[in-house]
Amino acid sequence: MRKLLIATTNEGKVKEMKQFLNDLPFELIALHDLDVIPMPPEETGETLEQNAMLKARYYATETGMLAIADDGGLFIDALDGWPGIKSARSFTGGQAAQDEKMLQALRDIPEENRSASFQISIAVHDSGEETTFTSSAMLQGEITLSRVAHGDLQWGYNSIFYVPELQKTYGEMTIVEKNAISHRGKALIKVKRYLQNQFRGKHFVVPIAFIVQDGLLLINKRNDPHNPHYHGIWEFPGGGVEMGETVEESLVKECREETGYDVAIVEQLSGPFVKSFTYDTGDCQFYIVPYVCKIVGGSLNPSQDEVLETSWKSFDDVLTLQKFPGDTEIMECVRSKFKKIVSEHSL
After folding, report:
1. Which part of the chain is the Nudix hydrolase domain (predicted)?
2. Predicted pLDDT of residue 119
3. Residue 71 annotated to the active site
4. How far apart are CA 192 and CA 320, in angstroms?
């Protein structure tokens, strides 16, 4: 399982992120889990997003892991957005002391003018692919007149940031409540969808054509130079079903694009057959659906982008070729039915 590094020394943030992301296919790692913890980078960005990207890129590069980092701040309207990006560095001392100093800075601001927002940017960096995804969000609230010193989330000005919708401060909420409404939760849901799309196992329906003419099968040699493992192997015409297509429509289209022939589907052989593969970018599962097809039009005109050469071969000869993993086993499974269909339809 791939590791995802939660790149923050703030244990409160670690708990919230782990709770939010724990159903993803990653091993969630905190900085304190590392044998050697990299020295924190200097936060030189002029925006929250720049600092989040800086930290995610730094920790991903230092550890070789996929890394997630954030930068957030409290923006107080009556103070022209101060402390904003400098929130974590505005005051010294423990969190209770920092809360009191913040309240002191607002001592002359009446209750009706104490509106504020928590804002955040989160970045995920993949050093292997050199890609960065960012997500930003905010939540409007109010600064309390005094510190609410109870609850489990007493960090990061949580005890003085009041959310009218729940009639609680951040500090009084449970992690589940806070993640459901907070600025971090709003940004994390977009991060979660990105991670699901990029790294969760993907499923593909792939119809393939056993195109028969005069008892022989049409087989293509794959042109795929950027994937050397599959370049030059033999494969049946076909491809993944696109959104809005039926399996049969997809197969007819792919045959025309790859070979130049118009084909008609005679009969589904069997299946689907399930093949699973693990790549650097994640797991994939393919549902292979083989069909016997016949040529009804067109002429041989292989796609140069996809096909190095084509050949007509007997079923037994195709069995001996180097093909995609699992294709030989599929052929063995459908051998009897294939020969029966070919005989019944005089192909």
Report:
1. 201-339
2. 97
3. yes
4. 45
Residue 200, phi then psi, degrees to nearest 5: -70, 150
Binding site membership for substrate: which residues? Answer: 8-13, 155-158, 178, 183-184
Residues in a beta bridge with 122: 70, 135
- Token pair for 279: 């790549």
Q: Name the region of 130 (left: φ>0; alpha: ψ -120 to 50; beta: rest).
A: left
All structural domains of the chain: 2-199 (3.90.950.10), 202-344 (3.90.79.10)
Annotated binding-site residues for Mg(2+) read 42, 71
Alpha helices in 22-108 (DSSP H): 48-63, 95-105
pLDDT band, very low/low/confident/very high, at 281 (cuts 50, 70, 90)? low
Place of tokens 């309240």: 103
In the chain, % helix, strand, coil (3-state, to 5) comes to 35, 35, 35
Give CA separation, 174 vs 34, 104, 154, 338, in Å: 28, 27, 11, 61
**Angle 214-218-224 from CA coordinates, rounded to 5°:** 170
Judged by DSSP in three states, 57 sits in: helix
Residues forming the annotated binding site? 8-13, 42, 71, 155-158, 178, 183-184
Of 70, 71, 99, 327, which is the active-site residue?
Answer: 71
DSSP at 315: H
Q: How far apart are CA 75 and CA 81, in angstroms?
A: 4
Which pTM value belongs to this model?
0.69
Burial annotation 197-206 (CB, 10 A radius, 16+ → b, else e)? ebbeeeeeeb
Sequence-separated (6 or more) residues with CB below 8 Å from residue 240: 204, 205, 206, 250
d(CA 187, CA 193): 10
Distance CA 130, CA 56 (A): 11
For the four alpha carbons of 141, 143, 145 and 149, in that order, the dihedral sign comes to positive
